[in-house]
Records
---
Amino acid sequence: MFPTDVESVSDANLNVYRIRGHRPLVGRIRAQAAKNAVAKQLVASLLTREPCRLYDVPDITEIDVVLDMLAEIGAACDRLEDGSVDIATPRIASTTVGERYSGFNRIPILLVAPLLHRAGTARVPVVGGCNIGERPIDFHIDLLRKMGAEIDEDDEGYTARADRLRGTVIALPYPSVGATENAIFAACLARGTTVINNAAVEPEIVDTVLFLQKMGALIQIDTDRKIVIEGVDRLSGARHDPVRDRIEVASFAMAAVATGGRLRIEGADQTAMITFLNTLRKIGGGFEVDPGAITFFRDRDPLDPIHIETDVHPGFMTDWQQPMVTLLTQAHGVSVVHETVYEQRFGYTSTLNDMGANITLTNDCLGGKDCRFTDRNFPHSAIVQGATPLTGREIEIPDLRAGFAYLLAALIADGESTIFGTRFIERGYVNVPERLASVGADIDVPAQLLARDRPVAVPG
Ligand code: EPZ
């Protein structure tokens, strides 16, 4: 059963969810470990020959694909009954990451540095990920070259060679999550010291740094987005309990507020979510923080509108934006959301409008934050006029986080919604229908509606 083949991931998971709205969600949900930390920690395990263990690895297709990729490289991966994954790569069996992984996610480019450290060469396909903007990898290529890698690019991918990477000073043009992780992986075993200026400091990155520290790495996170890594000669195996998924926590939190319910989310971490919690409070969402859990509920009715600008951590996450826009359709008045991380992350709003929302997009920067998309003709600000009742309908999901925005819309809509393309949700969220049903959602996965005849979008 394991690891899952990427092609079967593309072809399978053609489930359809059917949701009848207006049920308050009440109960408990256990937060899963963050996929965007776990995936990188599995990659980090390649930096040693010794076995590593990650606890409570989410059983989602994104992780299955990463494990599949690593198995082809030579990793022995074993998912234990308690949800842990044991992974060990005593020798690199192949330095080529198959082209079939092209376009699925961002992981192949993160494999270059570990493969260079272990084998001196790497061949990876062009990368993909959710369809939310151009998503170039120029920062990755530039930093690897600066650290001594020779990289040839062709239409299908990248071929890299290096005897030993060397430490250097890297100034990222933007605090990219993936480029910061790439630089860290490259620097851990490089000769000398690497300084990453303008680094991303997302909690998932800090969590991967904790894992690497256990493995023997010397990584200092300084003030002002500066990360300093002193290269060491070898890393050893380690065990790690990954940080919880703050995107998932926020998604369920918004579902509790939107439906007028009350959800206790176990494992939710306040420190990773300060901006989200402030935002939720301002619009009328309530929360109580207990040791090891946060309970979310509706504090005011109606909800108030707000102005939000997405940003890198510690700002308002771009991955919280989509369900938040759905929630804001239920706030009385005009909300404004300025997306500054991705240029094309409002495509999903047209379906919300079809359900009854009143959302207008504009190319203007509606906010004061520095924005790379000024004057570049991307519809990257949204004006949400609420409150508007939503009506259930057939919905096709375009990407992972838009998927949850649609689930949320269906949960508060009048009538029934039929949601296609749920493989995008299953890519990042564990057992969503079962967990939503366990807290009172009227949701089922009708076998007779399996989307045999629907067009199958390519993952990513
Ligand atoms: C990670 O993507 C996450 N993915 C994304 O989550 C998340 O939205 C994003 O970080 C921001 O928090 C994973 O961790 C697997 P970036 P990543 O490099 O690393 C530009 C989800 O739904 N950029 O920080 O790919 C880029 O185009 C996913 O879970 C360059 O221009 O994001 C974007 O505008 C979606 N050149 C911005 O930086 C580069 O070489 C931020 O991207 C690299 C990035």
---
Amino acid sequence: MTRSVRRDQVFRLFDTEMLELVEALSAESAARGFRLCLVGGPVRDLVLGRPVGDVDLLLEAPGQSREIAAELARSCLPEAVKVVGYGRFGTARLELGAMKLDVALARTERYRSAGALPTVEAATLEEDLFRRDFSANALAMDLSSDAGGTRMPLIDPTGGLKDIAERRLRILHDQSFHDDPTRALRAARIGARLGFGLDRGSRARLRRALSEDVLAPVSGDRIRREFEKVFSDPTQGLDPVLALRHMDRWGLLKAVDPGLTLPSDAVLPLRRFGKAVSDPPWSSKRLRSWVVGLSIWLADVPAGVRQRSLRRLAVRGEATEQVTGFPRFRSQKLSALGKARGRGAVDGLLAGISEENLHALHAAADPAVRKKVSRWAAEDRSEKIPVTGSDLLKLGLEGAALGQVLARLRAGFLDGELMNREEGLALAHELLRRRSSRASRAQKARTRPKADR
Ligand code: ATP
Ligand code: MG
């Protein structure tokens, strides 16, 4: 089992500008007798040889005030670096242009009651590692030390390396799930992502915690955030179905709502959506993946369970409507899209729907409809036609009639029936002429004396 990581591999995690900051911080930490460490997820991923997501740094400065990380950064970094201190947890955020880097303070956390936010104090690295969720996440590397030469020794006070080698997540003390029940949701997600199980002792502790209903006092926002990550983590190789299956088997879904399950009909669409998150079939602006994930997943649970679960997860506003409306939307759109002939007809059915609904529909559709949806999303929706609303205004069209003619022209262009602006305007004229003659026939019918009708 490896007990160190190559130094160049570690420093490759930072781009040139960031590396300069990290080196300045390391040197200043060493000069003051502190340690600056890489910690948690990135160390675990380096050991596993997996791509590293976000980089987590930790400053060990026991006995210091919670402002120390920010103070140290201000003292040694160029003025161009903006330093924001978050006193409650002792974290300092460094910003240089678009680049952001968080330096957390090694700390202890004491929980006054289950599920409550902890009180925080500066502590040693080891103490900080022991308050973490799982041993596999309780590893560190001292960036401010030269010891080890070309290799950097791993700091592993909790036996995390052995657990990584045996592919399991293990909590660090018996009350861990009581202190922070969201760790159980993390275990399901991180375990699914890494292909790790939950070790037997931790499983037993989780059963006990759930039998004491530890999730009940946890806020909906905190629980929802864990589900949000289930649907954004596919970028890091997570299959959301696996994470939800762990949650189901471990009794976590039941703890959110007694009727909540992972319906078998949701499995394939959810897996398909997971693939779409890691390898987008089209480019999406501001996609809220979790809204898509919840829409697909909850579409196949009973409506009452869906409503209660959304309330429990404190889902609010537009997201609630999107998830609640999806089952109906799905059946209407899938059947209409199945029958739609031509790109214009598809455009008419999909124009204006939210990005979340579009993805959820795509994931739920059969291959033929999926193709229609993705072609529309990737190509047709951004297609500009050479006739505009103001052209039609000039012809005297307005309101709903203008919208209908424009939609008809758009369909004509997408279907290849219209080739250029002249043909578009000619059809607009023709449609307008037909409208006027229909209108004048109707007018005549109305003004004819009653006896003639
Ligand atoms: P990812 O690759 O998803 O970022 P990560 O393990 O880095 O995985 P983060 O959510 O970034 O996860 O958290 C950073 C570190 O903080 C974790 O590795 C873990 O050590 C610790 N941590 C996070 N959440 C908790 C928690 N609820 N309880 C205890 N420790 C936690
Ligand atoms: Mg992380």
---
Amino acid sequence: MKIRIILAICIFLTLIQTGCMPSAEQGKNGLDPVIESKIDAILAKMTPEEKVGQMAQLINDNKEDPEEIKNEIRKGRAGSFLNITNIEIRNSLQKTAVEESRLGIPLIFGYDVIHGMRTVFPVPLAEAASWDLDLMEKTAAIAAKEARAYGIDWTFAPMIDIARDPRWGRIVEGAGEDTYLGSMITRAKVRGFQGDDLSDPETIAACLKHYAAYGASQAGREYSTTEVPERVLRDVYLPPFKAGVEEGTATLMSGFNDLNGVPASGNKYLLTDILRDEWGFDGFVVSDWDSIKQLIAHGLAKDKSHAGIIGSTAGVDMEMHTHCYIENLPELAMNGAVSEDVLDTAVRRILRVKFRLGLFDNPYADPKLQDTNILTPEHREVARQAAKESLVLLKNKNNLLPLDKNIKSIALIGPLANNERALKGTWSGMGRDEDVVTIMQGIKNTVPNCTINYAKGCDITGGDDEGFAEAVKAAEKSDVVIMAIGESEDLNGESHSRTKIDLPGRQKELLKEINKTGKPVVIVLFTGRPLTIDWSLENIPAILLAWHPGIEGGNGIADVLFGDYNPAGKITVTFPRSVGQIPIYYNMKNTGRPFDEEDRFTSKYIDSPNTPLLPFGYGLSYTTFDYKNLKIENEKVAIPGTVKISARVTNTGPVAGHEVVQLYIRDLVGSVTRPVKELKGFERIYLEPGETKTVTFDLSTCDLKFYDINMEYNVEPGNFKVWVGPNSVEGLEGSFELL
Ligand code: GLC
């Protein structure tokens, strides 16, 4: 009780001091007394084994006759299944649960609907480059609608791990390196998946993952250790999760990673002290695949029983796939080794989400939805729009792009020119290769009369130079060369960290051979991560970063290549010059010896510039934008207060286009050192040629809070710099002071 009084006083003082509303005590949902009383009634009847059954998520891999698993369901030993995408099997298992188990509690069915279910959108790191929150919400809403048509109630998404190391394969699954942008995208995704009413038959439960700081995997090596100081954890890695909780996410997933000596899936500080006591999260936490049993390998648990105790008491409510809970907790609860309160708390959370999803009232999925809700023309149109908006123009020397639609011949060269699978990217749900529009098909759709001289040239990885000669011939007889190169979908994603992040295989050698022909070359770069493309940037006139753009990628790319769409994407991860620079990100600290060209004893390398190959927020357009008239109203601001910052942006080029106007600040002096820049706002605008718009940001002093020397979340008086510009290294500079 005393703790709660102290907490209330702290919140009250925070309110007075900063005028910033503290995070909602309860998630957006709030507790429904009717649901809570129903849960009470069910809990009162449950045996320990039935309680732990709700905490078990099993698989059955769409087995046609899952009789064995049905017996488990009848005994109340299953609460959820994952990876069942056959709606008949799903409904059959559900029927067993609802009609043949003692209490008739419905199952909840989960699946990785990461960037689309059947209509596959660009991979998350690509979508993030659009900076278009409405679009990202819309693609999540479509994914939810399609997922429900497959009988899926719950997605293991959005993945919101801040990642600053492109060696880590899973950087592709998130929003990139920035906490503010990552938090905004998290909110958009939760809104998209869950809509306003979780019981709506076209919405699904979201799952923020991987809680927390999995993206800090040491050396970018998959499943590696994460050592993250508390302040960095709080300032960098946790805010997107807090944003998602405030947005009302139904669930979270605990990570694999050893976080400061306590693996995330056994970390009470993360799972209870912060998530429940500080943030008031009222949904449930599912473990990652086997991450409870992995507590043994971590050296935190001595056996499965011990792992079950640690995971459940730390705050992981449901165990994915392994059976530490179901095999041990009933007996442990009965013999008092684990308090039955632990089970009751977990089950309450799980049942709460099942009630909110409407599973008690409507436990069965409607197969008819598959006739109307999957891969519709409207969904394809949104996929094409998402592909276009996620493309980033990295270079366009002498305006080689856009190409003239009357071009006579194009050499389309590279192992990704005709590769459906790669365009879907990793975690592509129920997407099918035959649904994909490749870049070859997209070009044919746009310029049907153009002769396309295709040559694969080489394999994606390994291989040899056998195909080079044919590719050179194709280039020599064409007006322009388009190189479709980069990573395939299985060179990034889970368990695909890389120590070298160059173009894989012999692709760079192929590119150099083609460049020797002297033909104008355009690279269309497919990848799930930043690549060290320094040679390409130096020697190739035009580069379009396509990521893995989804099933409409080929059309979206052609729209940009031939000028039907003016690219406006901006990278949300820094591209390093070399692996040696990693970790490198825009919002680093200044150090006591910031780099100085004139002084050798300053922070630098002797064999590389400090600057990245491409900075956070970078992306070009077919037009140009000019920034003028930075205005900062009330340059001296009391706390709490608002700084109004504006700038005029003009389209000074020949074609209309979007521009992502970015707002950065720097807190010059703090009770702890602060980053050299921090993104605090952005606005995606559209300007006709010659048009000017004034973009205004109302920067609240709340937005300037950080964990100070006393680890309190505060904003401190002092001087700030501010920039408004097109990326993290350019822009109009100003300043203001907090009093
Ligand atoms: C995987 C991933 C996680 C995914 C889960 C279920 O190992 O770590 O992101 O949601 O298992 O497929």
